[in-house]
Structures are given as C-alpha cells and as structure tokens.
Amino acid sequence: MKTINRDTLHTVRLHLNGTARSAPCTPRMLLSDFLRDGLGATGTHVGCEHGVCGACTVQIDGVASRSCMTLAVQAEGRDIATVEGLCDPDGPMSDLQEAFKRHHALQCGFCTAGILMSCDDYLRRRPDPNEADVRDMLSGHLCRCTGYTPIVQAVLETAALRRAHASADALTED
Ligand code: FES
Ligand code: FES
Q1: Residue 4: pLDDT band by 50, 70, 90 thresholds?
Q2: Does residue 165 contact residue 95 with C-beta atoms inside 8 Å?
C-alpha cells in the first residue's frame, strides 16, 4: 500500500492581490497559515480556525471564503484577494475602509479584515442592500467590540455613495 508522506512539500503558485506569488507548503497546510506564514500577508487574521468567526475571510476568485476552511494546495492557480489589496500601500483607503473609519466600525480590529473582505464582495453583488440584508451578511462574522450597528451603517453608506456616484457619472455621459 502506498504511504502518503504528510510532510512532503509542494510549491503553491497563485496570484495574491494581483501579484504572482509562490511558496512551499505541506498538503495539510491551511490557506490562512500559508498566506500569513508563507507569503507574509498577515492582514488576514486567524481566530477560531473552524469556520465560525469569519476573521480569516479572503476572496478566492472574487468570492468571500474562509481561508481556515481551505487548504493552501486548493488555492493553486487562483486569484486570492486579502485586506492588503483593498487599497495601495501608500494610497488612500478604499471608500469602504473610509466609511468604516467615519462610523467607528472597528475597535480592536481583529474581525475587521475579514469583515471588509466579505463586505467588498457583497457590495459588488448587492449594490442596493437594505439593513436586514447587511445584517444577514454580517451574521457570518463575529465581532466582540462594535455591536455591529456602526458596521451596518458603514456598509449602507458605502452602497448609497456608490449609487450616487454612478448616477452622477451616467448624467455626465448623457
Ligand atoms: S478563523 Fe476562519 S472562520 Fe474563524
Ligand atoms: S472590532 Fe474587535 S472584534 Fe470586531
């Protein structure tokens, strides 16, 4: 019978925030650990490590996903987006991040990277959410500090501002 060596190293190649990256990992290494320890993307946080808290949320090919529930080898060839990719390192923050700042939608910040990655994906798919929609989306994330209301306000305001800008752009083009 063939013996599987669980410590055999594989090289995983992927795109992290638009840049081709690679690093070795064992077959059972989690994507969350690979991002943090293999690629140095420590903006992604690790809490429960079993899919409950949402702190480790990244986007895989644009879809918000738990990186603690994904093996690093499953990310081979995929586009991975983390919180570091929401804005340029030296540039202004994204509109969503600015809204979080305005509404004090974070305190300790442990949950924030994961919540931002979920919200970023969600607002692309749902440009006109209501409060219940946003609270439903946030039910996949645990935040022990904010009580969630400022986060909901930040997401709704971002959606409203994006719609207003889109309308203004459409009028300019007419
Ligand atoms: S660390 Fe992944 S869901 Fe909690
Ligand atoms: S801001 Fe502290 S857990 Fe959410």
Answers
A1: low
A2: no
| pLDDT of res. 170 | 84
Mean pLDDT computed over 136-144: 97
CA distance 115 to 92: 19
Decide: pTM greater than 0.90. yes
In the reported structure, the alpha carbon of residue 86 is separated from the centroid of ligand 2 by a whole-number distance in angstroms of 19
- How many angstroms does the Cα of residue 117 sit away from the middle of ligand 2? 15
State residue 173's pLDDT score.
Answer: 78
CB-based pocket (< 6 A), ligand 1: 46-49, 51-56, 66, 68
Q: How far apart are CA 133 and CA 118, in angstroms?
A: 13
Determine the Cα–Cα distance for residues 102 and 24; give it in Å rounded to an integer: 40
Residue 69 DSSP one-character state: G
Atom of ligand 1 at shortest distance to CA of 69? 2
